[in-house]
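INTERNAL AUDIT FORM
Audit reference: QA-55
Scope: verify that the stored structure record matches its stored sequence.
Auditor: D.O.
Record contents follow.
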Amino acid sequence: METHVIEVRDLEFGYPVGGFALRVPELRVERGESVALVGPSGCGKTTLIHLLAGINEAASGSIEVAGLDLAALPAEDRQDLRVLRVGLVFQEFELLEYLDVLGNVLLPYRLTSLLELDPETSNRARELLSDLGLGDKLDRYPDQLSQGERQRVALCRALVTQPSVVLGDEPTGNLDPVNRDHVIDALLDYGRTTGAPVIVVTHDHELLPRFDRTIDVTALISPQEQPKESNGPQTRPPGGERGLSCPQMTQIDADYGEENE
């Protein structure tokens, strides 16, 4: 029986402007494995995370996540995959300011009929928040929370659906060392407990010993696509490599706001 949950083969991706291209001949991530993605800004770490999540679509090659070939899925099905099977954590939190802490964690259940918001789910959300020290802040709003608290709320939202894969794009980039360790502990504990692979982009080399494997994204890229040093202006792909917002969250904000007007 195959143990890998993520498999990438002959992946090619490029943005229509800026000249950025990413080619990954092969990448496999096993069940329960924790992987740190490192590399210089602009090398494609965030792009790779978004390809694995099905946010971006590869030009060619194959990406299999939890047994599904993303290339064979239309955009709506890839979005359903993210809701049901992939937990995403971003550096910029992506919380909705008009929802309280519990409402933000349970947001995925209010946006699709594929998930059922039942008492068991509500209790799981409360337990996650309690485990991360937020049990007494369920009715607070994002602007009443610290940076570390906001990121822990975002982490609970990513884990409440019990995803098969967890992806983090610099989830500790805005945090102090104590809150950084809280978030990494929770991510790695979830992976060990459930067998879900955990893949995290980080520039914090102090964290690397915590992961099973560290991958320099530049080592994955075909030689002709290696990022080049330059002293002049650089054109970066839309969103760059830092805190790239999830396009779906922008639409979620608009849709959910309309529903509550």
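Auditor finding: record pair retrieved intact. The first strand starts at residue 4 and ends at 14.
Action required: none
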